């Protein structure tokens, strides 16, 4: 399993637990702890995804400012 997959799955699971605990009103001490730690978890997850993640789409051509995979002609200069 890849680093970014573990990070995204782990943080998503923790935040799902937070949502379940907060909506049911059980384990309120855990709710407060997860709420306090959530910014650190999100920053860590973003850092892991940016460090280890790979972009598998097409690279932009020299004359493109932006591009979309589903609309390849969008963003190209018209001649």
Question: Would you give an account of this structure?
Answer:
The chain is mainly α. It has a domain at 3-52. Helices cover 59% and strands 0% of the residues. The longest helix is centred in the middle third of the chain and has 25 residues, at 28-52. 4% of the residues are buried.
Distance from first to last alpha carbon: 45 Å
Alpha carbon gyration radius:
19 Å
Biggest pleated-sheet summary:
none
General form: elongated
Q: Name the structural class.
A: mainly alpha
**Overall number of strands:** 0
Residue-averaged pLDDT: 85
Q: What pattern of helices and strands is seen along the backbone?
A: HH
Tell me the helix content.
55-70%
Which band does the percent of strand residues land in?
A: under 5%
| Unreliable runs | none
How many helices in DSSP terms?
Answer: 2
Summed up:
This protein has 79 residues and is an all-alpha fold.
Q: Which terms would index this structure?
A:
2 helices, 79 residues, mainly alpha, 0% strand
Helix-strand blueprint:
Elements lengths: L2 H22 L3 H25 L27
């Amino acid at each position: 399993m890849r680093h970014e997959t573990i990070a995204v799955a782990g943080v998503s699971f923790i935040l799902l637990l937070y949502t379940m605990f907060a909506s049911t009103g059980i384990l309120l001490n855990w709710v407060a702890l997860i709420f306090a730690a959530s910014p650190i978890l999100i920053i860590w997850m973003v850092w892991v995804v940016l460090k280890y993640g790979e972009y598998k789409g097409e690279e932009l051509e020299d004359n493109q400012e932006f591009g979309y995979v589903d609309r390849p002609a969008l963003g190209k200069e018209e001649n």
